[in-house]
Amino acid sequence: MMFKEHAVRLAIAPIAWTNDDMPELGRDNTFEQCISEMALAGYEGSEVGNKYPRSPERLHRALELRGLQIASAWFSAYLTAGPYEETAKAFIAHRDFLHEMGAKVIVVSEQGRSIQGQMDTPLFAAKPVFTEKEWAALAAGLGGLGRLAAEKDMVLVYHHHMGTGVQTAAEITRLMELTDPGEVSLLFDTGHLAFAGENPLEVLRAHLPRIKHVHLKDIRPGVVQRVISDGLSFLQAVKAGAFTVPGDGCIAFAEIFEELAAASYTGWFVVEAEQDPALADPLEYAIKARRYIREVSGL
Predict the structure, then answer these.
(1) In a 10 Å sphere around its CB, with 0-12 CB exposed, 13-18 middle and 19+ buried, how is residue 278 labelled?
(2) What is the pLDDT of residues 74-85, one digit of tens each?
(3) Which of 121, 126, 238, 242 is most exposed, with the fewest beta carbons within 10 Å of its own?
(4) 30 pLDDT exceeds 70?
(5) What does the pLDDT look like over 221-277, one tens digit per residue?
(6) Residue 17 neighbours by CB under 8 Å, 6+ apart
(7) pLDDT at 63 exceeding the cut of 70
(8) β partners of residue 10
(9) Within 13 Å, how many C-alpha atoms sit on residue 88's CB side?
(10) What are residue 291's phi and psi, to 5 degrees?
(11) Full set of structural domains in the chain with CATH
(12) What is the number of alpha carbons within 13 Å of residue 242 lying toward its C-beta?
């Protein structure tokens, strides 16, 4: 066993069942089917999807029946695009909901100038690049949100993401240098790093002390190559199957797990693979990922 007992817990994101960016993917999959299959596949936690009830009482009850907990949920920040107060107001409501659900981390991604939700914008050619002014607004704003999270003993984890201003290893490093470790932590996402052409292991080693949440996803290199050569968008890349679950792509997870275990990582691992559920049966892939993670990490 690589990890200390109870140090790491395994969750899976509902995006494999129903896609938040493209609601037509998995439209017929219900919330109950989604969480039942998560439990059936052997997971302990989930992030929050668009079909999840927003009443903490109802959500708690549905999850408790299946032995699941909420690990976190995505929050879109617009710190480079609008007044801080607007993002902060929305963040407080999001924070309070997650706090009621017992989550300890809040996933934040800056969506100012993001192209991730645009169906026809080429992912690599049109990638946004922040100006000095935008970097300053982002860093200051995240610091403020991090302090709001701390009011509830929660941690802000920043999600670097394809199609946004924080996508590359250099951009992640810059964000970490501009922010206070006491206010802003990092979400480490293997799939987004590999997709961006980075080495996930190197990024992990560079920022280990800041990493408080982990998304485990894999990529299909052939599809990624096609995304680059054909100028596909992020959403087209997802539909084409650029992402898959750990053990089904090209990322060497054993070294990543070893590094996290050696650093005594505690918290959630969240399996996440945006795929079309009509092409990639969510339960089948959830089970595949669960087996692979057990084989490679002992979890």
Answers:
(1) exposed
(2) 999 999 999 999
(3) 126
(4) yes
(5) 999 999 999 999 999 999 999 999 999 999 999 999 999 999 999 999 999 999 999
(6) 26, 29, 33, 34, 37, 49, 277, 282
(7) yes
(8) 269
(9) 13
(10) -65, -45
(11) 8-297 (3.20.20.150)
(12) 22
